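for the recovery benchmark. tokens below, seq after
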């Protein structure tokens, strides 16, 4: 019985090793996807998203050649959704180490939603009137923006790093997430943090701040402080 068990273990290790070797041996492939009529982007399942503001709508996918057809790009209700189709082969558990990138050019952008360990970055300055940014489940967002009104919501260990200029910034961080916006100039800022989250903002005119449950808010500039609420170990301080 011990011999059979030992053989089974060695066979299992051999299969895993072959799978890893196969993954390393695959090469990256590029596809241009035909999509249009979207003003929002939703990305998930560990995909890296690179956004460019331009005069056309374009989507280019770069991924390992054995998973690129499982990387889905589709438009629903004006939102471009980018995600990995659930694999049927259980040996694809290690596919997270394989390349999965999306390069998207937009004419206008009103929303960004990143989840499940995805990373989002801007290749140039994103511009417009209103922008909603949501990052959850360990995702990271790093963008340079020039908008009138911006809403940023981070949760579950996600991070958002923002630079540029806005009129009004509404920021909310929870569940150990961070918002770094010291290089984002705002006129009016409303910021709320909780559950061990941190936020740094840069505000010129009016500040409304709420920090609770161990959350910290640091602000740059000399705004008129309209309202500050600190509770349950939360802290608001000027930098």
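predicted aa per position
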């Amino acid at each position: 019985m011990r011999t059979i068990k030992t053989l089974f273990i060695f066979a299992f290790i051999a299969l895993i090793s072959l799978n890893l070797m196969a993954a390393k041996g695959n090469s990256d492939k590029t596809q241009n996807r035909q999509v249009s009529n979207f003003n929002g982007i939703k990305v998930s399942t560990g995909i890296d998203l690179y956004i460019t503001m331009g005069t056309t709508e374009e989507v280019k996918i770069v991924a390992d050649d054995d998973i690129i057809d499982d990387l889905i790009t589709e438009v629903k209700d004006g939102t471009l959704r980018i995600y990995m189709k659930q694999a049927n082969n259980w040996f694809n558990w290690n596919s997270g180490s394989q390349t999965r990138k999306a390069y998207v050019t937009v004419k206008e952008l009103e929303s960004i939603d990143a989840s499940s360990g995805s990373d989002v970055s801007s290749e140039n300055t994103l511009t417009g009137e209103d922008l909603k940014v949501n990052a959850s489940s360990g995702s990271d967002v790093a963008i340079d923006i020039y908008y009138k009104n911006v809403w940023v919501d981070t949760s579950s260990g996600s991070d958002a790093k923002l630079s540029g200029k806005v009129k009004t910034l509404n920021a909310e961080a929870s569940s150990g997430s961070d918002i770094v916006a010291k290089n984002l100039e705002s006129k009016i800022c409303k910021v709320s943090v909780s559950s061990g989250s941190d936020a740094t903002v840069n505000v010129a005119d009016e500040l409304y701040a709420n920090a609770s449950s161990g959350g910290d808010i640091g602000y740059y500039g000399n705004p008129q402080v309209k309202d500050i609420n600190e509770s349950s170990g939360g802290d608001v301080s000027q930098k």
